């Protein structure tokens, strides 16, 4: 940066003449002489300041160019201590596996299924009887039982062959009634489903009450531990569906893809079902899913 030159010329005061040798009573003459004498000094001062500003600008630009260089820096990681309790949140009155199951699958959801199933039976004008909540609980229990005792077909549990026959299941419900449940079970009103192309259209409309309820109860019935993870999981399905995905790297290669947030115990705290590509592809899908599934953790000292 250049040094500012010192102004040598002295600006006279009102009490002395311009040349400093004699006084003058003619104020106009003194003023004219004073302006003529001061003008070169002011011009010199302005030129000096403009030159200094030019030098400053060059220096500033050079400094900015140097500061714009990206450098790799590391920020030390500081983990806050995890002080929250974790584990199941169930009432003291839950004393059996059935009671615990109803914490996740509440009575209110059973009421919705009974109402919507009977509505569908009426709309379809089926000949079968309307269902009851007790029957629905038996139907759900049979499905859970079939999950760990698998046979090629559900009808085999009522088979006359002793190798397949299951006396426990066949004593709870007849095979025809079980088949009636399979073909009439409903959770939402078909007559109110938005058409494709409607802004409210939802591929999961028929399951939406179930998914919304489970999303709430999963969060309410379990306090997750410190370490959690978000990843894709697959629900096996080989039928026809626009939501079916093929992921060759997964143990279950074909089915419904579900984004899940689970803690180290394996409990699914929150989930989102992937419905497939849309007309306008979503950018940064992974980042959006992570934000959605961790929004409830804001303000809590969890590590994801």
Description:
The protein has 304 residues and is of the alpha+beta class. It has helices at 27-67, 97-104, 107-124, 133-148, 167-172, 175-184, 208-220, 285-294, and strands at 87-88, 222-223, 228-236, 244-246, 254-263, 268-273. Strands 3, 4, 5 and 6 form a four-stranded antiparallel beta sheet that branches. A hairpin with a 4-residue loop joins strand 5 and strand 6. The model is unreliable at 4-42 and 53-62 (pLDDT under 50).
Number of strands: 6
Largest sheet: 4 strands, antiparallel
Spell the H/E element sequence: HEHHHHHHEEEEEH
What is the count of DSSP helices, taking H or I runs of 4+ residues?
8
Cα radius of gyration in angstroms: 41 Å
Measured between the Cα atoms of the first and last residue, the distance is: 53 Å
Q: Percent range for helical residues?
A: 40-55%
The coarse overall form would be globular
Enumerate the spans where pLDDT stays under 50 for 5 or more consecutive residues: 4-42, 53-62
Round the mean pLDDT to the nearest integer and report it: 80
Strand content range:
5-15%
Question: What is the secondary structure topology, with strand pairs?
Answer:
Blueprint: H1 27-67, E1 87-88, H2 97-104, H3 107-124, H4 133-148, H5 167-172, H6 175-184, H7 208-220, E2 222-223, E3 228-236, E4 244-246, E5 254-263, E6 268-273, H8 285-294
């Amino acid at each position: 940066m250049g040094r500012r030159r010192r102004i040598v010329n002295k600006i006279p005061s009102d009490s002395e003449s311009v040349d400093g040798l004699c006084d003058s009573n003619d104020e106009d003459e003194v003023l004219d002489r004073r302006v003529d004498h001061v003008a070169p000094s002011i011009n010199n001062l302005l030129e000096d300041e403009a030159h200094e500003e030019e030098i400053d600008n060059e220096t500033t630009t050079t400094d900015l160019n140097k500061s714009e260089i990206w450098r790799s820096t590391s920020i030390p990681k500081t983990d806050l201590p995890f002080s929250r309790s974790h584990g199941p949140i169930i009432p003291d009155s839950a004393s059996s596996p059935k009671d615990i199951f109803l914490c996740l699958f509440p009575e209110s959801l059973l009421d919705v299924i009974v109402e919507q199933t009977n509505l569908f039976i009426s709309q379809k004008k089926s000949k079968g009887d309307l269902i009851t909540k007790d029957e629905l609980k038996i139907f759900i229990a049979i499905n859970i039982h079939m999950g760990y005792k698998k046979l090629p077909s559900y009808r085999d549990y009522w088979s006359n062959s002793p190798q397949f026959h299951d006396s426990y299941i066949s004593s709870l419900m007849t095979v025809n009634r079980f088949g009636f449940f399979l073909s009439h079970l409903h959770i939402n009103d078909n007559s109110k489903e938005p058409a494709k192309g409607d802004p409210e259209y939802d591929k999961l409309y028929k399951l939406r009450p179930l998914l919304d309820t489970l999303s709430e109860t999963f969060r309410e019935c379990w306090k997750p531990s410190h370490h959690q993870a978000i990843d894709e999981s697959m629900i096996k399905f080989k039928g026809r569906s626009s939501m079916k995905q093929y992921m060759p790297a997964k143990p279950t290669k074909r089915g419904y893809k579900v984004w899940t947030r689970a803690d180290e115990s394996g409990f699914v705290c929150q989930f989102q079902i992937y419905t497939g590509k849309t007309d306008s592809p979503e950018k940064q899908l992974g980042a959006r899913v992570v934000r959605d599934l961790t929004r409830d953790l804001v303000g809590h000292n969890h590590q994801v």
